[in-house]
Structure formats: structure tokens, C-alpha cells
Amino acid sequence: MAESAYDLVVIGTGPGGYVCALRAAQLGLKTAVVEKRATYGGTCLNVGCIPSKALLHASERYEEAGHDLGRMGIKVGSPQLDLPAMMKFKDAGVEGNVKGVEFLLKKNKVHAIQGTGRIVAPGKIEVTGNGAARVLATKNIVIATGSDVARLKGIDIDEKRVVSSDTAIALGKVPERLLVIGAGVIGLELGSVWRRLGSKVTVVEFLDRILPGTDLEVAKQFQRILQKQGITFRLSSKVTAVDNSGKSLKASVEPASGGAAEVIEADVVLMAVGRVPYTEGLGLSEIGVRLDNRGRVIVDENFQTNVPGIYAIGDVITGPMLAHKAEDEGVAVAEILGGHAGHVNYDVIPNVVYTFPELASVGKSEEELKEAGIAYKVGKFPFTANGRAKVNMTTDGFVKILADAKSDRVLGIHILGADAGNMIAEAAVAMEFGASSEDIARTCHAHPTLPEAVKEAALAVDKRSIHM
Ligand code: FAD
Ligand code: NAI
User: Fold this and answer.
1) Which of 171, 277, 301, 416 has its Cβ near the most Cβ atoms within 10 Å?
2) How distant is the alpha carbon of residue 431 from its chain centre?
């Protein structure tokens, strides 16, 4: 028997799910969320964005204390790493964030139900795992169940020595040698954390480049910087097996195209070859919700599946697996259900790698423009020529702006540099408003700031940058 009736039940409380529920409640819909984790906030808050950024921040300060502060006349001696305390700092950050979501759900009168949800029929969700099973009746369902770690055949993730990001954010000791499989975002972010804390880090990447999808010129310079910091890259290579029988792990590394294997020894192997949509136990095949060939829930432009009244958002559908993309989809679907015109502009979704320096981009890469046959102009400006970067000793990197050759409309902005993740917001706003490179170039930027490099790159599109 259905025990209560809702306008909307959201399954999953990651950035997609909880934001969707909050917006729906704001719009007056009677809303509930179902979450199988003990805490709210999904992958992002519990084991993803938030804990990884806490460790990136802390390890960056550790490295700064050891290397850079002395050059500014601040003598602190040799910093001592207290890893358990650093992990506590990270856990406190997570706790503050997940409690924040709990507070927001309560404040907005969203019913938060702990347990695993399974759709038994359109409009009916069975919740198990926290006391007696119960069935929720609802007009609409949003699937926001997120994603899970992708695995490689033949390599067992034991979460002890062969780990996923879930454990790589919680290691009890700094591994002497860390082997990372995959030069994507997780590999580079968590590889950076452990390198700063003392690991010798080797990254094995299947492709002949790091960060596939990112503008190639930017990715190449980024790789050089990471190499200078001490990370070793093995591109065009694949790990085919990890022997965990001995004291050291022995990874077999082969050329991507096949050939003789070489053994690389490591103390910890981090599997970071992507994530896959998570729909296990949801009952989708039984009720006929269609998935694509990569297991993603297929939705239409209103985020509705092929079964009326069942919607899906976030990592479980197509598109970049990013928290802010999931959030925007959550808002859009809530607004659609509330009778408004929800919309996500997929052309303007920023992407940030939170290493040092950071790599942030929005819009198209040069490779994408070439492939689409779009004629474009390029403006670039290095941080070595930016006054604030010079004085801060953060001169690695550059800004690159791609603008339409005819209309001058900005098509892509790529920033490799300290604080790029904050600077990309300007680029996203400009693109959302359909800015030309001249619009950015003629916008007064405060001096001395790093974003002046964005203005200079915009000037450089028409070869008139001032400080180069
Ligand atoms: P999720 O956050 O995965 O949430 C899904 C929730 O659904 C989970 O809590 C799960 O327990 C619950 N659930 C699943 N099935 C059921 C069920 N049947 N019943 C009840 N509950 C269920 N993105 C960024 O934008 N920036 C970053 O800095 C960033 N860093 C990351 C770092 C790491 C290490 C990782 C792994 C990911 C990172 N991401 C980052 C990606 C980001 O975490 C995801 O894109 C985002 O969490 C997706 O949100 P979501 O709401 O779709 O799903
Ligand atoms: P990813 O898709 O970013 O990178 C995976 C990498 O592994 C790719 O470079 C791929 O070519 C490589 N690879 C695949 N198979 C391989 C093999 N057999 N051998 C060697 N290399 C192989 O995935 P990642 O880093 O696991 O992250 C998962 C998701 O989480 C990403 O899609 C990302 O969007 C999200 N995320 C976002 C962050 C951010 O926004 N800062 C931070 C961390 C994760």
C-alpha cells in the first residue's frame, strides 16, 4: 500500500538530486528524496569533489610551506606531515557540507528518506534497507543515482592496495610509489595530492596525451608543468594486470597497441579510468526505462525517459560527469515539473582540473572547431607577462581565447594557471551573454589581478595585447 503521495520523489541526493528537490520544494511541489548512503550529498560531497579539494588545498599548503614561503621571507622550517590530522581536516570539511545539505532539505520541507529506492511501477517507489520496506506514491520520479567507478577487466580493485578514488582520498599512509592508471581528472588531481605529500607518482595513460577532450596545446603545456613537478607519464600505454601476491604490487604495462610488457612496481595502484552510470537495483529494465549502449538512462530534451513521469539527471544520463552540470539539470527538471521552462546550456559548462596550476576551460577546443569546420582566431597571453602572477611567483600557464573568425563571438576560453577555476566564471558569463572577444577586451579589469590575462588574451585575438 502506498503510504503517502508526493508530486516528486528524487532517488539520490548528489548535487543533481538534492538541488532538484530543493528547487521543486521552492516551487511548491510536495517533494521527497530517497538516499541509500548514511549522509546526503552523493559522490560529490562524500567521496568526490569536496574531500578531493580539501586534500588538494591542504597538500598545496604543505608544499608551499616547504618550498615557497621561504622565498617570501617567511621562515617556517621544514614542515612536518601529520597525515591523520590532514584526513581529519578533510573529514570535517565533508561533514560540514553533508550536514549543510541535510539542513537545506529540512529547511525546504523536503522529506528525506534513508534507504534504497527501486521503481516498482511508474509513480511507485519501494524503499528498503532502513527498517520495514515502504512504498512511496508520487506523480513524478527523478532518477539521480549518479555514477560508479569504472573497472578494467582482469584488475581487481581490493580498496587496500589497488584502489579507486574512494580509498585514494583516505589512505592511511603516504605510498612510496603510486601508480595511477588513467591521466584524466582524478588521476591528475589525486596524483598531485600524493606527489606533494611525498609519493613517487607514475601515470599510465592509454592515449598519446593527457586529459582527452581538453584543448591539446593547453594539455601539452600542462603535462610539461606536471612533469617538472615530478610526475612521470607513460602515454600510449596500458596496464594489463596487477600482481598483488608480493610485498610490492607488480603492474604489467604494455604499449597501447600491444607488445612486450614491462613491470612497474608500486605500493598503491589507483584505478582512474573513468566512471560509469549507476542504475543497479533500480528496476529500470522491469518497468521498461531505456538505457543507451553505455548504460546511461536515455532522456528527451525535458529530461523525461521513455516512461512518462520518470525523469533522469546528472551522471546517470549523457554529458560531462560534473557536479554543476548535474545541479543545473536538477534545477531545469524541477522547473519543468513546476510549469516553467527549464533549460541547460550545454555549450557553456565550465570544466576545471584543481591541480596546481589549475586548468579551466569553457566552450570549444581548437580540435573541436577544426573538426566542425569553423574558422576561428586565437588570442593567447602568458602569465609570465601578468604583473600579479609575477609578484605571486605563479607564472606557469597562459590564457587562450578562441573566437569566431567572422563574428568575433567567443567560442572557447582555456586558462592554465593559478586560480584558473575561479577565473573561468568570467569566461562562462561572457559566453552565456554571447560576448565577442572585443567585449572582453574592452571590459575594464582591476589591476593588479590574474584576470587581466584574460583581457590581454582577448586583446591578442586581434593582435593588440598591451603587455606583450
Ligand atoms: P551522485 O553525486 O553520484 O549521487 C548519487 C546518489 O544516489 C548517491 O548518494 C547514491 O548513494 C544515491 N543512490 C544511488 N542509487 C540509489 C538508490 N537506488 N536508492 C537511493 N539512493 C541511491 N565534479 C565536479 O564538478 N567538480 C569536482 O571537483 C569533482 N571532483 C570529483 C572528485 C572525485 C574523486 C570524483 C569521484 C568525482 C568528482 N566530480 C567532480 C564528479 C561529481 O562528483 C559528479 O559529477 C556528481 O557527484 C554527480 O552528481 P549526481 O547527483 O548525478 O550523482
Ligand atoms: P576521465 O574520463 O577523466 O579519465 C580517464 C582516463 O583514463 C582517460 O584519460 C582515458 O583515456 C584513460 N584510460 C581509459 N582506459 C584506460 C586504460 N585501460 N589504461 C590507461 N588509461 C586508460 O575519468 P576519471 O579521471 O576517472 O574521472 C571520472 C569522472 O569524474 C570524470 O568524467 C570527471 O568528469 C569527474 N571528475 C571531475 C573532477 C573535476 O571536475 N575537477 C575531478 C574528478 C573527477
Assistant:
1) 416
2) 21
**Full DSSP string of 217-253:** HHHHHHHHHHHHHT-EEE-SEEEEEEE-SSSSEEEEE
Q: Whose CA is nearest to atom 3 of ligand 1?
A: 146
User: Annotated catalytic sites, by residue?
Assistant: 447
Q: pTM above 0.85?
A: yes
User: To 10 degrees, the CA torsion angle through 76, 78, 79, 83?
Assistant: -170
**Would you write out the chain's pLDDT as a tens digit for each of its 468 residues?**
444 599 999 999 999 999 999 999 999 999 999 999 999 999 999 999 999 999 999 999 999 999 889 999 999 999 999 999 999 999 999 999 999 999 999 999 999 999 999 999 999 999 999 777 899 999 999 999 999 999 999 999 999 999 999 999 999 999 999 999 999 999 999 999 999 999 999 999 999 999 999 999 999 999 999 999 999 999 999 999 999 999 999 999 999 999 999 999 999 999 999 999 999 999 999 999 999 999 999 999 999 999 999 999 999 999 999 999 999 999 999 999 999 999 999 999 999 999 999 999 999 999 999 999 999 999 999 999 999 999 999 999 999 999 999 999 999 999 999 999 999 999 999 999 999 999 999 999 999 999 999 999 999 999 999 999
Q: Which residues line ligand 2 (CB under 6 A)?
A: 152, 181-187, 189, 204-207, 212, 238-239, 272-275, 320-322, 352-354
Which residue has a Cα nearest atom 43 of ligand 2? Answer: 186
CB atoms under 10 Å from CB of 103, counted, come to 11
Is the CB of 145 within 6 Å of ligand 1?
yes
Between the CA of 256 and the centroid of ligand 2 the distance, in Å, is: 17
